[in-house]
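look at this one:
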Amino acid sequence: MAAKKGGGKEARRAELGAAVQRALLVRGLEGLRLRDIAEEAGVTPAAVLYYGDLDALVHETYQLAIERYSQEREQAADRFTDARDKLRSCIGNGVASGPDDALTRLLYEYWPRCLRDARAAALDSALTERQIAVYSSVLVLGQAQGHFVIQDPPRLLAANFVAMEDGYQMEVLAGRRTRAEVITALYAYARAVTGHDLAGQH
């Protein structure tokens, strides 16, 4: 990361963030050392410290991962006007592609810290709330459009969608379930609570 003028500092920070992600995925959070990040970035540990200590770098990386994950899902739902397409897209965008899904793995590597770190827990809660908000808005829209028949509060059902996803993601990342199997399970839940079969035609 040679010194550059102008936007060089932002570029170097972005490169370092990518190095933190790679190191986290290789070492895991508990085994991560400053030296691992430095090796991934091709710099000295002292150069890494210029941008913050290990906890600060990991926290920033988690923040960025949450933002990217949330934006991708929100944008996936926003591409459609029909709530049935929105729900299908929302489910598809939220399920890991497989054990090597880097963004999803990154989020799960950090999750255990939420149990004892208030800052990490706050970030995780923010991620959960954003996912619930997407699902809830889609369910409300589907009801208004006459496509969904919902008996329970949309926010409750949305929270259930997110909780199911969270549980199934671990199965996908561990290689015990496929993405297709999880989508099928979520479609089954969607059919049960909305009366609409996402796997079929409109």
